[in-house]
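Expect chain and fold; see below:
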Amino acid sequence: MERFRFFFLLPRQEQQRAPGRQYGLEQAARQPGGERHDEKQQCQDQNKPGQPEAVVPGGDFFALHGQTSLCIRALRHPMPGCADCVRAQKCGTLLPTNHGGTVMLTITLLGTAATMPLPDRALTAALAECGGHALLFDCGEGTQAAARRAGVNLMKLDAICLTHYHGDHIFGLPGLLQTLGCQGRERPLTLYGPEGLGEVWPALRTLAGPLPYPVRAVQLDTDPIDLTTLSSGWPAGAQLTPFRTRHRVPSRGYRLDLPRAGRFDPAKARALNVPVPAWKLLQRGQSIPLENGAVVAPADVLGPARRGLRFVFSGDTAPCPALEQAAQNADLFLCDATYPDNEQEAQAKQWGHSTFAQGAAIAKKADVRRFWLMHYSPMILEPEAALPNAQAVFPAAECGFDGKQIILQYDEEAT
């Protein structure tokens, strides 16, 4: 059995870029909601009231309609007896990512360029989505256009996590803040960043202009953040951990952890006289008071914690112990790959960056499951040409590209 399941959300021929070909052309043809406008009406009448109105175009796509995350899992892995799955197979309707109670973490690379944008490469940005909520890591120039091409909805953002304040990582921020306001956002947005945020944020805020929603700027050290404090929509225990990286200025990388509780034991719950409606609360980590005055804790009815999900975003950095430690056992590791050639290590060190092979070495030491290169120097016209430098160290290394997307799920048989 596979160690983990994932879904590439591009047609198979787009998974590896052909030389000279732009990424995301199919996504660019989509409407902002993620569906193809000309096919939407064909399925509209078959959707239940209040259900997403989206259809699967040809290929393995992920779509977003309004505020609802959608996936095609049901089309190839229908749940027996599920009316929604049957309907999805008949008309191609996409189902919510939490369909069947499965937690899904969707990662979308929005920008993979360093220093300056290129026609098919926006500046640094990546989006992590789970259960209708999202975090944006960096916000370089071109982030909004890249999000539109990828069909992702930035209105879902609970926080923007800046790794540092070089222009190629923050110049997209004023425009994005303004757009969110124009689209009617009212709920608060949190902005995280390392030392110096107090000096940078006032300038960004001035450029953004009047906003109809509050922005809370929080300077970080390395203390973990409970994401349920941003929104109750995050899974219980979801945690964002900043860590120090090695760049020319104060910088942070970020690790996103979605833990998974142990298996629920109904027999133990019955023996403790826990009402069935309270079982879900225990599974979510809440203690339950009983009528007899006793209190049942989750540990009383749950087995050992199982493997959860882990995503790591390096930001700009040279190799360092903190990065290796943070990346341990990551399901997906996105790492600085500014320089393609092994002979450029001295240059990479001088400017606080990594080579393809150096990032791969960290992936290998950290025993990550999946490793994507990003943050390419503008001198790198075809990242795939230098990919063998990384694969010689970590064979599963892949080149990231704008619009590349993956859905990570809990292990089928995690223990």
User: Anything to note?
Assistant: The CA atoms of residues 261 and 375 lie 35 Å apart.
